[in-house]
Design brief:
It comes from Candidatus Enterococcus lowellii. With about 300 residues, the chain is of the alpha+beta class. It contains eleven helices and nine strands. The strands form two sheets. A five-stranded antiparallel β-sheet has the order 1-8-3-6-9, with helices on one face. Strands 2-7-4-5 form a four-stranded antiparallel β-sheet, with no helix packed on it. The longest helix is centred in the middle third of the chain and has 23 residues, at about 160-180.
């Protein structure tokens, strides 16, 4: 049984992460989607700009609900505070994406003029991001610049200086690309994004309670059909499917980190009976809750 890596997020879907070098606002990584449940990077956002380059495999990628296919050699840019998610093709042997991110403050600290001239216009524009393919000179330049970030590691000499150089180079190319190419992933969906954040926030705060989709819609102030459209666009799942999986995910954490009984976990995670909880858990995780606990015991309990 595989232990999957989790993407920590707040109730409004903001990703929580630590930069590898204290107080230096740049991070880089390789995402291996076989380490993620259902080969899926769940919906989230952050204040930083994100860049990615596909090392292997293929993906269905969603930037603020806009869907496109990524294959080896493709790349992407995601604007700050934009919802995004990805699903790897599980028919591929390997699905990996190299990525890095940084906030505008990495390059504009102490210089409001730089922010106003080179960053604010893009942050406040309708541009959510863009899909990069090696089909034009400008896209090839951006892809090469993103790919070259792989040489950076936090323990290398002069990492901070190298990272600032990398970030400056790629951002210059982004500004040039936006000025000349008018990239297409723009947002008629800003309101849908806010609705989705509100829906998911409600679920994260109330998953322990029993509620219907109609009750959820009433709390958010949207129609049932709009709720289903938001879920399809941003999570590629039906509302109850997503809610059930989130409850089971919370239950899996309690099984690992607590000494609570199965009955107590059943109630804490919003399930009506322990038998129904056990059935749902086994369907998703492949083992019973007790078997899962036995094989995933951690030292810290509460």
């Amino acid at each position: 049984m595989q232990n999957y890596r989790e993407i920590p997020v707040t109730p409004n879907l903001e990703e929580q992460f630590d930069y590898p070098v204290n107080n230096f606002l740049y991070d880089c990584w390789v995402d291996d989607y076989s380490e993620l449940k259902d080969d899926t990077l769940n919906c989230h956002w952050h204040d930083s700009f994100e860049f990615g380059y596909v090392l292997s495999g293929s993906f269905d990628y969603f930037i603020n609900g806009t869907h496109f296919k990524l294959k080896k050699g493709d790349g992407f840019f995601i604007n700050a505070r934009v919802l995004h998610m990805a699903i790897a093709d599980n028919q591929e042997k390997e699905n990996q994406i190299f990525g890095f991110l940084f906030p505008h403050t990495l390059l504009t600290q102490g210089s409001p003029q730089l922010f106003e001239k080179y960053f604010q216009p893009i942050i406040e524009s309708s541009i959510q991001g863009f899909h990069l393919q090696p089909t034009t000179v400008s896209q090839k330049q951006l892809l090469h610049s993103i790919q070259s970030g792989q040489r950076l590691t936090p323990n290398m000499p002069y990492f901070e200086l190298e990272a600032i150089t990398q970030a400056s180079k790629v951002w210059k190319l982004v500004v040039e690309y936006v000025d000349t190419q008018n990239p297409m992933i723009q947002a008629p969906h800003r309101s849908k994004e806010q609705e989705t954040k509100a829906i998911l926030s409600y679920i994260y705060q109330n998953y322990a309670n029993k509620f219907t989709i109609d009750e959820l819609c009433k709390q958010i102030g949207i129609s049932r059909s709009e709720c289903f459209r938001c879920f399809k666009k941003f999570t590629n799942k039906k509302p109850m499917e997503y809610i059930n999986e989130y409850r089971l995910f919370q239950a899996s954490k309690l099984l690992k980190l607590s000494t609570l009984s199965i009955e107590e976990i059943t109630k804490k995670c919003g399930f009506s009976t322990s038998s129904y909880f056990g059935k749902q858990f086994k369907e998703l995780y492949g083992v019973t809750p007790l078997h899962y606990r036995k094989n995933n015991k951690l030292k810290t309990y509460f």
